[in-house]
Amino acid sequence: MPTPKQRLPYSTAGGGGGGRRAAAGSSVLPPVVVLVFLFVVAPSLFFVVRNGGRGHVHVASDPKGRNDDQEAVAMKNLKSILPKEVIDAIASSQQEAGALSLDFFRNHESPSWKTDDLVTDKSMYDKAKDENSVSEHDLPANKSLKDPDEHQVDTAAKIARRKLREKRREKRAMDLMRKDDEARVKLENAAIERSKAVDSAVLGKYSIWRKENENENSDSTVRLMRDQIIMARVYSALAKSKNKNDLFQELQTRIKESQRAVGEAAADADLHHSAPEKIRAMGQVLSKAREEVYDCRAITQRLRAMLQSADEQVRSLKKQSTFLSQLAAKTIPNSIHCLSMRLTIDYHLLPLEQRKFPRSENLENPSLYHYALFSDNVLAASVVVNSTIMNAKEPEKHVFHLVTDKLNFGAMNMWFLLNPPGKATIHVENVDEFKWLNSSYCPVLRQLESAAMKEYYFKADRPTTLSAGSSNLKYRNPKYLSMLNHLRFYLPEVYPKLDKILFLDDDIVVQKDLTGLWDVDLNGRVNGAVETCGESFHRFDKYLNFSNPHIARNFDPNACGWAYGMNIFDLKEWKKKDITGIYHKWQNKNEDRVLWKLGTLPPGLLTFYKLTHPLDKSWHVLGLGYNPSIDRSEIDGAAVVHYNGNMKPWLELAMTKYRPYWTKYIKYDHPYIRGCNLSE
Predict the structure, then answer these.
(1) Within 10 Å of residue 55's Cβ, how many Cβ atoms?
(2) What pTM, to 2 d.p., does this model score?
(3) Per-residue pLDDT tens for 487-522?
(4) Are the C-beta atoms of 492 and 580 separated by less than 8 Å?
(5) Pairing verdict, β 620-621 and 640-642
(6) Which residue stretches belong to region Disordered (predicted)?
């Protein structure tokens, strides 16, 4: 057994003298007792005191302030356990070396006494003892002061561990808060990115305050009744096939009642007040039919047949809708026809000397700003002229060249004689008076006179039904028969003394001064236009037949398309490059319509291929006649907005959100407009 670092004194004389004096007396203290005390009893006493055992030993001063009575009780218990010699040795050692204390055992520990739960790091112990020491004046008066040297090791260790735990908790809390902040920032950024992807164009199409949007299923009852009607039809067919005549008649009666209750309702609020009663009655008869004639296979076949029939009806209705929309787009409303007729009558009542426009000397002045407008719509032409003049910085320098057909020639003259465009110059011509424009010179006129073209447009065996007649209706448009549509390819012949001219369609509205277009450098090209191609649409392959070798050899299918409607033409370069001759060449090759369908944009793409200078898109914004999702800022920032498409602003099918851009240039209090019931 290892020898302890320091033995506790057990006699007053030191060494073994105590034993000899004891032997001289009545008895001698055996050395075995001393060894037992040193190596067995003393450590046991220490751990008894340390762990709060049933036996209590008085060591130094009790940390908890035990009184003398407790110490006496402890000594009494020891006397009952240990022999008298051991008790005397303990008493004598206390008198010589002082009371036993934990500091003594800590500073003179034996290797066999070390335990895991004791703090042996002196620096840690001292640090904890200093941090938790309490000065005398900070303690309450009724509590005894504590000497820092008398703090127990286990208390200091607990405090130190508690401090470490608190620091770790604080650190974890800070880490969690930091992670929460990072996660919140990420969520906010993700929400912002998602909000940018939201298509805001549809936000104005409905209001959450409308009745039909008060809940998600505002038409649930309507749909229930229609489903009941469908099932009743199925069961009635089955009942008839099984000779259940009474059930068949009852189902037919309930079907008629439910149909009357539903009517044209699109939401539950539109239903007749008897609808709940009809639903209950129909439910009862359907339950009865299910019990009597239910056949899963037969019902499946019947529903499949009804689905196919409904699909055919939808297709037919779509064709009819296409036909009617095309028809509506190409016809003139009664009010505009009325306006044209009244103006024509009044024009022919005018004396000849009053039919002339002023400032005719400006018509061939190349230093002025010249516009070409070809139209048979008086009201549309007036909007183009009025919007251009009202937004022009120098109206007196603008010259408008209008060309119309003989049917509308009088009306167009009369309107602008009554409503002259301020200080601007205007002139109206009749396309039928252009004697040089004949079938021997113009391929389109020659083709229109051919038997094949007449059959295409006017064949007697054309289908009479709406669905059948809608085939290729877009390309059978009567406007393709009018030379007003093809006159754009003959600008140098119509205006031989001009250098530049701005071509405008009659379905546009001018919102800014356009004189800046005359300063655009076209870089030797003929046509200045806004390109319309996106990533994969409005390119040449959309308009031209690239399966034809003439097209495939000479053009790029991915070449970008551009728009008619607002085009600045350099007539000098036009003449140099013989643009009209190029147009004639391709028009002659398309006599059988194998290169492109009818229209002026495909031959324009061919004629001005690599001769078109792209303009900034803000000059010309298109799509107001078919696209409901154009950005408002785009429209407001455009110099020209174009109602290309079927929904022209003078038609009832025009989109109401875009119509005000056009109607604000019409004087609805004008006597002629008011007399023909034209209204906003």
Answers:
(1) 13
(2) 0.58
(3) 999 999 999 999 999 999 999 999 999 999 999 999
(4) yes
(5) parallel
(6) 1-22, 128-152
Which residue do the tokens 């004697």 mark?
A: 435
Are the C-beta atoms of residues 323 and 469 closer than 8 Å to each other? yes
Separation of alpha carbons 639 and 627, rounded Å: 18
Cα 239 to Cα 289: distance, rounded to the nearest angstrom: 8
The region that residue 520 occupies, defined by phi over 0 for left and psi between -120 and 50 for alpha, beta otherwise, is beta
Q: Quick count: other Cβ atoms within 10 Å of Cβ 356?
A: 10
Cβ neighbours for 589, distance < 8 A, ≥ 6 positions apart? 550, 595
Tokens coding 123? 């620096």
Position 263 scores a pLDDT of 85
Residue where the block lists tokens 């379905």:
507
For residue 501, give the amino acid letter: I
Are β-strands 527-529 and 612-614 bridged in parallel, bridged antiparallel, or unpaired?
parallel
Q: Phi and psi (nearest 5°) for 519?
A: -95, -5
Q: Which residue has the tokens 């937004």?
A: 391
Other CB atoms within 10 A of residue 175 CB: 10
pLDDT in tens, 452-492: 766 666 554 455 544 444 445 555 555 666 788 899 999 99
In the predicted model, what is the mean pLDDT of residues 66-95?
60
Close Cβ partners of 284 (under 8 Å, ≥ 6 residues apart): none
104's CB contacts (< 8 A; 6+ apart) are 60
- Cα 47 to Cα 100: distance, rounded to the nearest angstrom: 13
Taking CB atoms within 8 Å and a gap of at least 24, the contacts of 203-210 are 204/657
